[in-house]
Amino acid sequence: MKKKKNSEVKQIDDHVVDNKDRVMTTNDGVPVFDNNNTLKAGNRGPSLQQDHIFFDKLMHFDRERIPERVVHARGSGAHGTFEATADISSITSANFLKKGTVTPVFVRFSTVAGFKGSTDLARDVRGFSVKFYTQEGNYDLVGNNIPVFFIQDAMNFPDVVHAVKPEPNNEMPQAASAHDTFWDFISLMPEAAHMSIWVMSDRAIPRSLRMMEGFGVHTFKFINEAGKTTFVKFHWKPRLGKHAVAWNEAQKISGFDADFHRRDLWDAIENGDFPQWDLGVQLIPEEDEMKFSFDILDPTKIIPEELVPVQIIGTMTLNRNPENFFAETEQAAFDPGRLVPGIDFSDDPLLQGRIFSYMDTQNYRLGGPNFHELPINRPINGKHNNQKDGFARMDILKGNTSYFPNSQGGGCPYHAMLKGEVGYETGKQEVQGNKVRERSDSFADHFTQARLYFNSLSPEEQDHVINAFSFELSKVKNEDIRKRELAILNQVDKHLASSVGDNLGLTPAKSLDPLTLQFARQNHPNYPIQPKKPEVERSEALSMKVKPGEGTIVSRKVAFLVDNGVSKASVDKMKKALEKEGAMPVLISSKVGKLTFKEGGEAEIQHTYLTDASVAFDAFYTPEGDSVAKLAKNPDYVQFINEGFRHCKALAFAKGAEELAAKSFIEKDAGVIFESAGDLTADFIEQMKQHRIWEREMDRKVPS
């Protein structure tokens, strides 16, 4: 994953502008003589109406902002490649999935609820959208870092977004779901129970965009050359593992660096630590569509990996940052309706609605129907059709025909079918039934999989879910809403409901609130409907807890807490060991500038206890030397290690620095490593590979 050669194929180079050694011009290419002064009648006189250069500049400036996305406004992007590594040609005819094919991609990660200027570390779902620039056209896999959604039908999509957005009377709170309107909606929608627990889990506060899973959410279809259909679920598995921050830590990161995730992704790529994900698929034969205790078309359900294993079919590597955020990341238009031959939609009612919504959004945001002509959205194989005109048309259509069929243009552009070439074909599917506004009873089980997810979490993760629900519902002013949601949680897990209830001073009701039942019966008149017996009650893949032997510390940032007089030998020994594992040691001292070593010599310091925060680092090491006496008197150092301990991170102390732990509230445990107690470097690295020492939180009740 580290220092790989950038071998990706650049998408479009013709539109990349380099201003180096170029004279400034207007937008029409006219050289600008003076860009500092408007045209005036005398140097103290009024500005003149004829200053067309000034007006041209200001006109562009006045129109530089475009409507931000209604959801997923806050985002980060990167370029890369996808390489298909498995032969699934018998399942799909998609050209870019043929083994050995390398395809350029652009990926955009995002939060959902916040505005464009909100924080990266809000408790929220993360968008995970990938645009594949294939030889058969662009394919967009538009997903999230959570595999399910709040609602089952697209008719409710505007409602859930309106509910989670800041309340319309006062535009508060920003980028948060901890308020009345959101939980009012959720407490009336039992179908939201499953995703609600995911959002209250650590999945909603990832350590890094590079350390989270991605999911296509919906069930799609693969179609092979013979026209046979196979249902498919998409999974992105991060090579760095899936990790989170502590909730207290997330709140502090938002204050210290609201761009934490954006900066982390950018810096990793700039440093050559190219993030990678394996693309996996769950394949369900068409004849097994109704095989399970749940409906595979229900977007509030997962297919447990114990029932259908995830098969890895390729690897994505992000290896190039955007040249310009607006032109690329902001103008990137994703749409689940952008499919290529070999991939098709399922009848998932939420997916069906997204097909219209995303295309309509891009038309609005990007000024009309020609948004696909922007460089970031252009297909690499070109586009040829009879569409013309419209806002911001860039392509010039040659000839006098813009219709089909035609003879004057030689019948071109021609249909693929006319010459036996590959074209997009929707899979054949028998459809019959009355036109109704109803919902299948196979969608009516709202709690079994919510229980499956909660039961699959480690005790520490379950405790985090309880704390998150307690925090969120404590912000809800209307007690009736709290009671309704507690009743829903009680259908999922009694320990979950009673624990949250204790924190709120409420006893969960045994049955759903009558108002909740009323809304549920609008979708299912006979609700509640007896659910089928689940195939599995726990799924190991759903927990984020690192399994022994699976951890890595590649690209992790380790704070070396030093001051003048620190031992260079003590620094270098640990530095060498960590860098061998791919970690990034960062020296932090009391001042920027020169740091003097005990043995002589100097190092350049760019990070200090006042300019950097402990929450920006994954682990902490205190070397020995004359610096120890200085650190003992430095309250900012003590705060660093105290906070690191509170956030369940590994802390290592060289033999001569172990006394510093006694000056804090740190208590010795597996994640507090003393050189005198064993192999300092090996033990420190092993604890870092576990990501966090979450047991510390449970054993000592440290509020993280």
Report what the structure shows.
- By secondary structure, the chain is an alpha/beta fold.
- It folds into 3 domains: 75-377, Catalase HpII,  Chain A, domain 1; 447-542, Catalase, four-helical domain (Hemocyanin, N-terminal domain); 557-700, 3-Layer(aba) Sandwich (Rossmann fold).
- The chain is built from 18 helices and 18 strands.
- It has helices spanning 52-62, 157-164, 180-187, 193-199, 247-256, 260-270, 326-330, 349-365, 448-456, 459-474, 479-492, 494-504, 514-523, 568-580, 627-632, 635-646, 680-689, 694-700; strands at residues 75-84, 102-111, 126-134, 137-144, 214-215, 220-223, 229-238, 276-285, 311-320, 343-345, 557-561, 584-589, 593-596, 602-605, 607-608, 619-622, 650-653, 672-674.
- The strands form 3 sheets. Strands 1, 2, 3, 4, 5, 6, 7, 8, 9 and 10 form a 10-stranded antiparallel β-sheet that branches. A 6-stranded parallel β-sheet has the order 15-12-11-16-17-18, sandwiched between helices. Strands 13-14 form a two-stranded antiparallel sheet.
- A hairpin with a 5-residue loop joins strand 13 (593-596) and strand 14 (602-605).
- Helix 4 (193-199) runs parallel beside helix 9 and helix 10 crosses helix 12 (494-504).
- The longest helix is centred in the middle third of the chain and has 17 residues, at 349-365.
- 42% of the residues are buried.
